[in-house]
Automatic annotation (TrEMBL):
Matches recorded under Pfam families: SUI1
SUI1 domain: residues covered: 27-84
Domain of life: Eukaryota
Transmembrane segments: none
Annotated region described as Disordered, given as residue ranges: 15-40
MF-aspect GO terms: translation initiation factor activity
Protein name: SUI1 domain-containing protein
PROSITE patterns from the UniProt entry: SUI1
SUPFAM superfamilies named in the record: eIF1-like
Naturally occurring in which organism (per UniProt): Linum trigynum
Lineage of origin: Eukaryota, Viridiplantae, Streptophyta, Embryophyta, Tracheophyta
Amino acid sequence: MVELDFQIPSAIDPFAKANDSSGSAHQGAAEEWEEVPDHGPGYERILKDVKKDFCCNGNVVNDKELGKVIQLQGDQRKNVQAFLA
């Protein structure tokens, strides 16, 4: 047998965040945003957290009528509503 020169990480519980008794699975992201001064979190920061939480792809585009818009892959309307609430 060949000995490996690296270690395999221990098992990761993918539902640990959801099983947290604090009430909201997204509470950590909101707490991090409080550090952003007066103007609130930037679109890129929100996009990064949403993409990570919902395992989807997305980007920020500039629309002529609406201004900056976050586009996400798939139907994420309910997820984003819960995330922002």
